[in-house]
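Page header: ASSEMBLY MODEL / two components / 902 residues total.
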Amino acid sequence: MKPSLPKGTRDFTPQQTLRRQYIFQTIQKVFVKYGFQPIETPAMESLSTLTGKYGEEGDQLLFKVLNNGDFLSKANAQALEARDSAALVSSISKRGLRYDLTVPFARFVVMNQNDLTFPFKRYQIQPVWRADRPQKGRYQEFYQCDVDVVGSDSLLFEAELTQIYDEVFTALQLPVVVKLNNRKILAGMAEAAGIGDRFVEMTMAIDKLDKIGVEGVKKELSSRGIDEQATEKIEQVLAVKELSELSAFFADSETGQKGIEELKTVFDLLSDVQLNNQMQFDVTLARGLNYYTGCIFEVKVDTAAHPDIVMGSIGGGGRYDDLTGVFGMKDMSGVGVSFGAERIYDVLEELNLYPETVAQNLKVVILTFDKVTFRYGFKILQQLRTAGIAAELYPEPTKMKKQMKYANGRDVPYTIVIGSQEMESGELSLKHMKSGEQEKLNIESIVDRLS
Amino acid sequence: MKPSLPKGTRDFTPQQTLRRQYIFQTIQKVFVKYGFQPIETPAMESLSTLTGKYGEEGDQLLFKVLNNGDFLSKANAQALEARDSAALVSSISKRGLRYDLTVPFARFVVMNQNDLTFPFKRYQIQPVWRADRPQKGRYQEFYQCDVDVVGSDSLLFEAELTQIYDEVFTALQLPVVVKLNNRKILAGMAEAAGIGDRFVEMTMAIDKLDKIGVEGVKKELSSRGIDEQATEKIEQVLAVKELSELSAFFADSETGQKGIEELKTVFDLLSDVQLNNQMQFDVTLARGLNYYTGCIFEVKVDTAAHPDIVMGSIGGGGRYDDLTGVFGMKDMSGVGVSFGAERIYDVLEELNLYPETVAQNLKVVILTFDKVTFRYGFKILQQLRTAGIAAELYPEPTKMKKQMKYANGRDVPYTIVIGSQEMESGELSLKHMKSGEQEKLNIESIVDRLS
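Prediction written out in full:
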């Protein structure tokens, strides 16, 4: 049989895996410095935990795991008779694959609340699964990389999450713009326009601004029956560039004022910090998902530095006042952001930003000519590894050409060739593969050189 | 709703996750030093890739993922009519969760053969899923940690895998015994006993030796119709302690002689190496799985060092002459071992072998009294983090008792308390939490101390 992979899934080769490890380790190191702790949750969750949390469309995209054994024996007979797939599912499948990391996190917090120290700061880097139609850059299995705090409404965390973005993308050498807004400012905008009750529709429309422009947003709002006076007010607010200009619009909106105040606190804290990337207030930032209630974030590649990169957001998040309410634990405010690891991977590749050392964790391969030098090479190998140097001995003293081909294939920076002469003198031939330069050195000098 | 987890699955708390990271990183570091490269494969494989690879019992234990959408529309009508779950499965599910890492690895090698450099040395640390009945220490989702070489029959790799075991368990401070045998020696045993054609049955019986003793093995062989002369010969061979004593039995078994020779080569290579753990030839080691064809390995906790530990093998593996044949790529010899990560986790916990630092990646929490000192604390925080120190500021200047409770809950080694006096003088109060000792130091000295 000719093997294949399911649509929308991928293998990762050593080079790809090393690059992904580089991204995740870079991010993880920053998380740890900021006091975040890792958790892991299982891939399979009860369907009752997942269903109804991602809207109707989300429910459609859940991967469901078939119950084991004679699953039909407990199947819904009526649904079976009617060949009704949707009605049958819950009786033949009780588990599903996790769709994101937020719902499992909320479940985790509720189930472990007595053992956790609040505010609880966690990060989580694990794959999720969605039955989306596979297409370029969209997979059915992909990693999410989330960092959240739950159990505090301090705006310190909004500042820190912004700093985390700054620090991670500085480490990855990718200049970005971090955009900030606040859902309360959007609520204020709706109130200022006299359509406080149409907040969700307004937000959904603004979320499309990038694609359809201001005129498109106005048209969409009109088509939903929102009058011209209101849409013009919204247009005016959307044109605001500075946080300080907003107050004038929000004289009658307490919520709007609160949103301004929150963002001011965050920017004020950040004024004490040395940042390498731009932090921008952006009143047009909406983040479609409607569970956010406070500050919202979005990260994009800085097009001033990289004008050719066409790429959506590579990170985003926000504050949600009631993270765990759906599982019965009330009044737990949470704030978190996530890193779009798959997109970050693609951008770093496009810009050639992976350090060369990422792919080269093997330092040297030893090549030998016969049984005697092979055996001697095995001893040399021990000395290298004892010194902590990642090293290999080609597994047999075969044709030198074949051994060299292997060393090239592994993209190794150095080889050591051992013939009978080298073995007698103890002066081994160290070859720098890129330059082709060769030197005769004893093993101590080689260890020094490669350490 | 009260949330719960599916049976046989687990959450990992920060402490557990950090300890798991410690185990995996320790193992991974050794793999890299030995020239192994990471790959990752998707959780979901085509059922056609998985089915038939793990025996009939294994097929029962595969988790199958329901096709999305109106899956009944393409269901096998006859099976549906007959309410035949087993016959229905393949028409409503085309994907399953991976059952181990070996079959995905073989598939990976076949699909990527043109891009790989052979011998291909890979490691892979990922979860697998099995619908086993959950019980203490047995989960439906658990990690495997495999390291394999494919494309070479050099016995160098048998030696290196033994070294890897030695080095990993040395780093984990867990003394072990690595047992080695060779399936060719078992074949020789069968030939010596005149039952070469009953090799698999003999091996299965010997595999139970630990549980049922020699008499039990003999009884089982008799019950399968193997005569007394043969079972006595087998008993004699099973009593052999030294490799050198075996030759006498294998005068007429070329395969047996080959097995001795292979093991001798491995032990001879290892004689050049400084090992910290015991390597033991064990003629009774059988490893039930019958795809092994050469050397086989098994690791157990050294009961001389830890007599109270009752635990099965914590690692094992072997050589298989035809790893990829099932996917149409012939003559690829492979050898590999795996680490029983879940059991290793339990043993380290039982023996209290986790370094204290594993749980303490947060170094210090800053506690403040009011808005002004909070703001000053935020600046101090930046200086600590800039120096690479994992640090936190308690997110609000609330009651000191509450802040201290948090610091204790995080098990943090140090706190810094900042009142107005400390702020004025710049001499901050650094408290060592375990001893309770406090010192007044400026921020530069604190950075030095904590770095």
